[in-house]
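Sequence dictates fold. Below is an illustrative record:

_____
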Amino acid sequence: MREAHLRDFVAVIGCGSVRLAARSLGISEAAVSKNLTALERSVGVPLLIRSSHGVEATEHGKLVLRRARVIDAELRKLDEELAMLSGAEIGTNVSIGVSSTAEAIIMPRAVRRFRESAPHTTVTIISGPPSATVSALREARVDFVIAPASEGVVGPDIHAERLLSTDMVVVARRGHPLEHSSDIDALARCEWVLGARRSETERALTHALRAHGRPEIRFPIQRDSFNALLHLLLQSDLLAVASLPTVAVFRDAGILSIVPAPFTLEPMVQHLITASGRPLSLAARMLADECRRTSRACRR
């Protein structure tokens, strides 16, 4: 099993065909096919299902793919670090997964300061729920993640470093019938938007209303992105719980309102999440340090 075998395997799965993978790698289709055959021979089991629609991984192939992505990413990072240390001005890349809160209050300043010291590095920002971004971290598709670190997401293979906490608020569109209301009965009768998975904050919201003798809140809609939440709120009378820094700019612009709910919600904690035992590249360490500095400034 050689580096080129794993590289081509990852490329073929990512591109969906040998032809497209060969084009992205800048080599011939014959060379890619030869490497795939050699890889399957070395592991002793079929790794790909080939059809007229392209290729996809077998169950054995999915297992190899998870490891191959990590190996391929680590080798590319090694090449980049060696080039940076030698003074070469090459185009390196740092990929990070972030929550909507991190997008709002950490990334703008951290990325700007990072780019001042690493102008030749491209930063790829992938937003989404922690379950998706931490999964990408495990597969080495991102270098690190900034998000809440819930028990259902992190594990012994993941290291979580606390950065900062943010207040959680009840939010609605400007002009919502309850935008100025603190009537707990009216809030309990509304329908709410749930995040990608029910968070501790939303569970706490349900418990708060139950403690006041109100029925459990209805969450008829579940969303993965803040963009989806924003459009849902703006075009309906739905309510949601959100991080204050995330919605503050829309409140200040007169688009959303913070509802004065008669209960207190626990703050949400953002963490810098990395893969245990997998060192960050030089560029990723620099960006992570900027995220730490920005977080400290936000705490003051």
Notes: The mean pLDDT is 86. The CA atoms of residues 238 and 284 lie 39 Å apart. Residues 168-265 form a domain with the D-Maltodextrin-Binding Protein; domain 2 fold (CATH 3.40.190.10).
